[in-house]
Design brief:
Keywords: ANK repeat, Repeat
CATH class of one domain: Mainly Alpha
CATH topology of one domain: Serine Threonine Protein Phosphatase 5, Tetratricopeptide repeat
Radius of gyration: 31 Å
Number of strands: 2
CATH superfamily of one domain: Ankyrin repeat-containing domain
Helix content: 40-55%
Distance between the termini: 86 Å
Order of helices and strands: HHHHHHEEHHHHHHHHHHHHHHHHHH
InterPro entries: Ankyrin_rpt (IPR002110), Ankyrin_rpt-contain_sf (IPR036770)
Largest sheet: 2 strands, antiparallel
Pfam family, one: Ank_2
């Protein structure tokens, strides 16, 4: 692009541009930068609204509106990225005046420009969101609410992006849109609710209330938001989620692990207590290896969870539950050399010390095989 043309667009000096046009004609509108930005792209990038208006009044101006650069970005993309509400409004007004279609029996402005994606399938709404430009986001949504249903190549919906970036005002704006026009999807199977896990300022309660289906949707490893809350021991988040849907406590990941399994493995007794208060029978859930939450606690070496479980009445079935290899909790403790847990279980009357696994071994047989008798005596002492 001619340096004087570029400077005129950057500074908004339309008089200088007219002088160049008078000498060389409107062919200069075909010039681009190394990124293939047109003169309209440059003006949008630097928020030169009056310059944009004057460009669009020239005969060659409107055609630049749909022209993409090397990334497929239109001038509208760059205006949204810059957060220029006025420039975005100018582009929308021109698009309305040039293109009209019939949609659902009504004459409406063509949405082609607003929905035009870049090379990564980002719309202008994605750009405005990343910049945190509330006013531009509201303008775009008011003009075309269907933008909220468009995901990019990374499978990021606008709602997911807003939640992921911790933008509560924009999240609220998007949640006001009709559910039929709203996607909550994110990358790797995640949803907008997954995105709020690390963004405490985002209104996760409003997402759960407005989009209740996200509560039980799992990511690529099968984890729902409840699995994550359980793993971190966030009991308040667990309580909040279960207020909207207690059935989420039954959801399992691809290995059959429930939130109870995760909490037990990580040693979060307060989360376990909340899950059992909400759905007492979740203690019956077994993973793909036939293991209960008590097995998970032993694998995680969580003495406090074992004590908690033994302190609950009428749990003989869980205490002596055998996994697919026939191992009880006591077997697992012996296999994984969890000496403190071995001692605790061995003292519990409800534990079946003579239970055998598929190899016809008792827990004591396994312990003898490891030749750890003296260490056991030490712990008993």
């Amino acid at each position: 692009m001619n340096p004087k043309v570029y400077e005129a667009a950057k500074s908004g000096d339309f008089d200088s541009l007219e002088a160049i046009i008078s000498r060389k004609g409107e062919d200069i509108f075909c010039q681009t930068t190394p990124k293939e930005n047109s003169i309209l792209h440059v003006a949008a990038q630097y928020k030169q609204v009056n310059f944009i208006r004057q460009i669009l009044q020239r005969s060659s101006g409107p055609s630049l509106l749909w022209q993409g650069n090397c990334k497929g970005e239109t001038p509208l993309h760059l205006a949204a990225k810059a957060g220029s509400w006025e420039a975005v409004q100018v582009f929308i007004n021109l698009a309305k005046s040039l293109h009209w279609v019939v949609e659902n029996g009504q004459v409406v402005a063509c949405k082609g420009l607003l929905r035009k994606p870049n090379s990564h399938k980002d719309t202008v709404l994605h750009y405005a969101l990343r910049g945190g430009h509330d006013g531009v986001v509201k303008l775009l949504i008011d003009e075309d609410c269907q933008l909220c249903n468009i995901t990019n190549a990374a499978e990021e919906s606008p709602l997911y992006l807003a939640a992921h970036r911790g933008l509560p005002l924009i999240t609220d704006l998007i949640l006001r849109v009709s559910p039929l026009s709203l996607s909550h999807k994110g990358p790797k199977g995640m949803t907008a609710l997954h995105a709020t896990i690390y963004r405490p300022k985002t209104n996760r309660r409003k997402i759960m209330r407005k989009r209740p289906k996200v509560i039980r949707e799992a990511d690529d490893i099968g984890w729902t938001p409840l699995h994550y809350y359980a793993s971190y021991g966030w009991v308040n988040s667990v309580k909040a989620l279960l207020q909207y849907n207690t059935s989420a406590a039954y959801d399992i990941d691809k290995e059959g692990q429930s939130a109870l399994h995760i909490a037990a493995f990580c040693g979060h007794v307060n989360v376990i207590d909340e899950l059992l208060r909400s759905r007492p029978d979740v203690c019956d859930i077994m993973n793909t290896e036939g293991q209960t939450a008590l097995h998970a606690a032993i694998l995680g070496g969580q003495v406090n969870v074992v004590k908690y479980t033994l302190g609950m009445p009428n749990l003989e079935d869980i205490i002596n539950e055998q996994d697919t290899d026939g191992n009880t909790a006591l077997h697992l403790a012996a296999l994984h050399k969890q000496y403190k847990i071995i001692y605790i279980l061995a003292q519990e009357k409800r534990v079946d010390r003579l239970a055998t696994n598929k190899d016809h071994l008792t827990a004591l047989d396994i312990f003898w095989a490891y030749d750890e008798v003296r260490l056991l005596e030490h712990h008993r002492a």
